Amino acid sequence: MAASGLVPSNRPGDGTVAILGAGSLGRLWAGYLPAGTALFVPRTDSPDQSRYPVSYQLLCPDDTERPVTVAWFDPACQLPDLLLVTTKAQDTLAALETVMPMLPEHTPVVLFQNGMGSQQAVAARWPDRPVLAASTTEGANRPAADITVHAGRGQTWLGALTASANPVITKVTETLASTGLEVIPTAAILQRLWDKLIINAGINPFTALLDCPNGDLLTAPLFLEHIDALCREISQLLEAEKLPTASPQALRQRIEQVATATASNTSSMRADVQHGRATEIDYINGFMVSRGARLGLPMPVNQMLTEQVKQLSTNYGR
Ligand SMILES: NC(=O)c1ccc[n+]([C@@H]2O[C@H](COP(=O)([O-])OP(=O)(O)OC[C@H]3O[C@@H](n4cnc5c(N)ncnc54)[C@H](OP(=O)(O)O)[C@@H]3O)[C@@H](O)[C@H]2O)c1
């Protein structure tokens, strides 16, 4: 038996994939996995949730639609091969506390959260479990309860966060690639997460504060006033973290290139504020502030952006 005493620890999985977080990204992966293999993990705080399977239409980038029905995970009957975690960063640790005891200790866990900090917290909490992180440029949103839009095809990089995840990367990659989505194993997942963090830190808070699509940033006074100082802070942080460094100018160029290439997109942070949901600011600019504090580096622009986005959320009633 596993440490929890609830589940056998060495039986192979039954070919199912459990998904914790039945939101946009969870529904995207569920919709592309082979029919019948995806299972959503019910919220333990919502006992009625699992009464009926989840049904929705997945609208694909090639303009096709697929009807999807996903059953709920029942630990008494199923032994998944894999757990995908598609909760928001701030919900992840608490959500996993309720789910981990239901899974054998060898079941790989793949974290899809944006930003940084939640992945490290999960790996530190369960250092002996195979924990992986994914960084994806797939985009999904839910304009209505029964519709999930796959907004654009991207790529998903996958890498180990704990030692016991290394031997399972190939198998996990194969399982995720059975969706037809592009999945690439990497030994440099932390670098991938940092690269995305930098872009998110330079785009998301400004779009949330200005309530504008990504491309409109480039001429906005708030962005123009702060972007160089923000990039200086990030550049110094990379150096202090002993990560591959980049000059503030190069960072600004990267951020502006992405804002231009995604000009009409609404960032997840802007969407969260618009819909009255909590944002992931603590795991993006807030993460940089806390890393800076540990390293003795002041991060006033990251701090200001974090505080202002939080203030915005408070104004929207959270
Ligand atoms: N969407 C994308 O295109 C995309 C792309 C790249 C990365 N990501 C990252 O992926 C993560 C998820 O994003 P998302 O857009 O899919 O968010 P989302 O639509 O808000 O989905 C999160 C889901 O997690 C559920 N959840 C929260 N706590 C839970 C718990 N304790 N037990 C079970 N379920 C729980 C939520 O349920 P309720 O609705 O009931 O609260 C919600 O359905 C974020 O970190 C995001 O940054 C998303």
Automatic annotation (TrEMBL):
Domain Ketopantoate reductase N-terminal: 17-161
Pathway field: Cofactor biosynthesis; (R)-pantothenate biosynthesis; (R)-pantoate from 3-methyl-2-oxobutanoate: step 2/2
InterPro entries tied to this protein: 6-PGluconate_DH-like_C_sf, 6PGD_dom2, ApbA, Ketopantoate_reductase, KPA_reductase, KPR_N, NAD(P)-bd_dom_sf
UniProt keyword annotations, A-Z: NADP, Oxidoreductase, Pantothenate biosynthesis
Reactions it catalyzes: (R)-pantoate + NADP(+) = 2-dehydropantoate + NADPH + H(+)
Pfam family, one: ApbA_C
EC number(s) reported in the record: 1.1.1.169
Entry GO MF terms: 2-dehydropantoate 2-reductase activity; NADP binding
A GO CC term assigned to this protein in UniProt: cytoplasm
Domain Ketopantoate reductase C-terminal: 189-312
Transmembrane domains' residue ranges: none
UniProt xrefs under SUPFAM superfamilies: 6-phosphogluconate dehydrogenase C-terminal domain-like, NAD(P)-binding Rossmann-fold domains
GO biological process, one term: pantothenate biosynthetic process
Family membership: Belongs to the ketopantoate reductase family.
PANTHER family in the cross-refs: 2-DEHYDROPANTOATE 2-REDUCTASE (PTHR43765:SF2), 2-DEHYDROPANTOATE 2-REDUCTASE-RELATED (PTHR43765)
Purpose of the protein: Catalyzes the NADPH-dependent reduction of ketopantoate into pantoic acid.
Protein known as: 2-dehydropantoate 2-reductase
